[in-house]
Amino acid sequence: MNVTIAYAAGSDIGCNRENNEDSAYAGPWLLAVADGMGGYAGGEVASSTVIGALRSFDAEVPADQLVETLGRAVTQAHETLRGVIGEHPELDRMGTTLTAMLWSGTQVALAHIGDSRGYLLRDGELFQMTQDHTLDKLLGEGGGGSPRLSHMLFRVLDGSADREPDLSPRTARLGDRYLLCSDGLTGPVGPEAIYDVLTGEADRQTVVKRLIELAKEGGGPDNITCVIADVVEAPEGSAPVVVGAAAEAH
Questions:
Q1: How far is it, in rounded angstroms, from Cα 150 to Cα 94?
Q2: CB neighbourhood size of 173 (10 A)
Q3: Using an 8 Å Cβ cutoff, are 27 and 237 in contact?
Q4: How far apart are CA 222 and CA 20, in angstroms?
Q5: Which segments in the chain show pLDDT lower than 70?
Q6: Three-state SS for 154?
Q7: N or C: which end of the chain has fewer CB within 10 A?
């Protein structure tokens, strides 16, 4: 049986920010969410640069080359970001998280750096596929429970030479539902509420809209970006979607 992904994406500035520093892309083979940082304009540039560079990798890839290809894609996107920083020294403190998936049927590569997240809903259970690269996670029990440390990232794409993402292969199943999101969702909205929305609504665009609404009802302290993908029988076929700062840049 041939399978593919059907997807939807959305991004919102939230309740407290003056601009949207998130970017996301959803296409037939590639899903990605990036949460930029670095002050006014810097975060927008960082996330949109990385998402813009990744877009060219939304193409069919042999299953046994997915991880290598996605790793190369992230490296090239990071090099592009480094070039922008070199041309604009005033943006030298900017950076971005990235959570991305590259698909070939039921075979998937997952790349992750920062504290955006990837979730899998399978057989009525919700799993977090990624681990936040925050100082409280790095320090384990010794640093756990500190709200300050939970917002401090030790690994992002920021032009530095040693910024390698976590890369792993995964196997999808027909009926799986995936969520990639920035921490503007997971900060104010807990996993139980996310689970309720993912299981309670079939329409993907409605899911995106409801998740963003929940984050804003929770105060919306940050930009909110979500990508939803369902594993369905092929063919589905829909145009790629770009949201957030990357949409404004094109």
A1: 19
A2: 11
A3: no
A4: 9
A5: 1, 39-40, 138-151, 250
A6: coil
A7: N
